[in-house]
Amino acid sequence: MLVWLVENPGAPAIEPGIGRVVPRGTQRVTPSATTTYTLTNGDLTRSVTVTVAGTKPVAATAAAGPASKGITRTPEGKPDFSGVFAFGGGGGRGAARGGGAAPAGPQLKPGAEKYRVQRGPLDTGRTSDCMPLPPPDAFGVPYQFQIIQNKDYLVIFHEYPGTFRIVPLDGEPHQVDPDPAWLGDSVGKWEGDTLVIDTIGYNDKTEISGYRHSEALHTVERLKRNEDGIDYEITIEDPNVFVAPFTVSRTFRFNVPPMKRIFEFICENNRDYRPLFGTQK
């Protein structure tokens, strides 16, 4: 059993065969030959050798990860998104669907400047109060999230701030006139191997990509499995705020080593942090 703890982590990784890891974790390994595992974090390395009696040490260059196995699928043949995903991931903004080249981000409608978030020097930020975060901002915090899926539902759990979404997968339409909610009313359907999550019914108490929004906010998320995780795209529109829909794309990777569940997160001491920063006594 490999056990490690990294302080001030950058992008820690363990080789051979494990790859990127969380700063603190455990991983059971069963090498068939004597193998030296090396944890790398920036310029620092630490190694441990697992000795298998009667075998020769595996050369570092010969060690290789598992062969490609493609994506996992549910018993119904659908891509299986279940798992715990590490925070972070690449991404950017793309073109609006159904149109030409889109702006490099959201464009406010004339007269909608009030929706732009302006933060003063004493503002501790939108994540300091532990209130719910809608997508895509929900995926931008340094905490894992977990997906549990069966043939009828897909459930997304966010470790921070302890929120969840239950998405029916039966293709039924939205509720009629849903009550505004922090995370809206989501319904899912399959387009081939792509899972499409359509959400309306948001309240106007959150922000997305640096902008407030109205209750007309509408998002469409598209999830595709790859060997390492999920290719994610969300199209965002609010006719009261933005000139046109815009998209944000990201890639989420399964946590390494695999986790069975995310951790509990509780805002036990939700206090004013400004005195800690020396900005207020």
Describe this structure in words.
The protein is mainly β and about 280 residues long. It has two domains: about 1-50, no CATH class; about 85-255, Lipocalin (Beta Barrel). It is about 0% helix and about 35% strand. The protein is built from no helices and 18 strands. It has strands at about 1-5, 15, 20, 25, 35-40, 45-50, 85, 90-95, 145-150, 155-160, 165-170, 185-190, 195-200, 205-210, 210, 220-225, 230-235, 245-255. The strands form five sheets. A six-stranded antiparallel beta sheet has the order 8-18-17-16-13-12, with no helix packed on it. The chain has a four-stranded antiparallel beta sheet with strand order 3-2-5-6, with no helix packed on it. It is globular, with a radius of gyration of 22 Å.
Which features characterize this protein?
281 residues; mainly beta; Lipocalin; 2 domains; 6-stranded antiparallel beta sheet; 4-stranded antiparallel beta sheet
List the helices and strands and how they pair.
Blueprint: E1 2-5, E2 13-15, E3 19-20, E4 24-27, E5 35-41, E6 44-50, E7 83-85, E8 91-94, E9 145-149, E10 153-158, E11 163-168, E12 185-191, E13 194-200, E14 207-208, E15 211-212, E16 218-225, E17 229-237, E18 246-253
Antiparallel strand pairs: 1-4, 2-3, 2-5, 5-6, 7-9, 8-18, 9-10, 10-11, 12-13, 13-16, 14-15, 16-17, 17-18
In a few lines, what is going on in this structure?
It contains no helices and 18 strands. By secondary structure, the protein is an all-beta fold. The strands form 5 sheets. Strands 8-18-17-16-13-12 form a 6-stranded antiparallel sheet, with no helix packed on it.
